[in-house]
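Changelog-adjacent note: as of this version, every example in the card shows the full chain rather than a window. The one below runs 159 residues end to end.
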Amino acid sequence: MFRHRMMQFCVVLFGAVLLMAAADDTGTRFNKIGHAMMCACGCGQILLECNHVGCPDSDRMIGELRTQVASGGDDTSIFNWFAAKYGPTILAAPIRGGFDTVAWITPVVVFLLATVGTALLVRTWVRRRRNTVTTPEGIPVQLPENDAVRERIRRETEY
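Full-length structure tokens:
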């Protein structure tokens, strides 16, 4: 009898935990999506944090967001719905995919190319510096790379 009651208690407890997780998931999802969008009134604040007095848009948009989340659509479809209604500036960050991927990749690529270019430039300067000696008078003189170049310089500088 005790085992039977204990088993029933475990099943009820497991069901309660699942229901709590499902309810919390909707709230968490609502907050996540709401913090990924901007208010349309032009205040420049995140949708769920728009707190200026008399905002004409935030209450309506939050209601629309609740409706969209309750309808069960995935996050991308909700973002697309809001972007279609209010324009792409409603999103706090561009959706990753398609041409918007360029907005995420370009800064990293430019940084890497600039770093590599700078490293190559410094390397070239260091190599040139190694082939230069200074005379006792302080005049830098470029050393030739090989004997053929030295011979050509000697012939061209004869009087």
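Structural remarks: The two ends are 119 Å apart (CA to CA).
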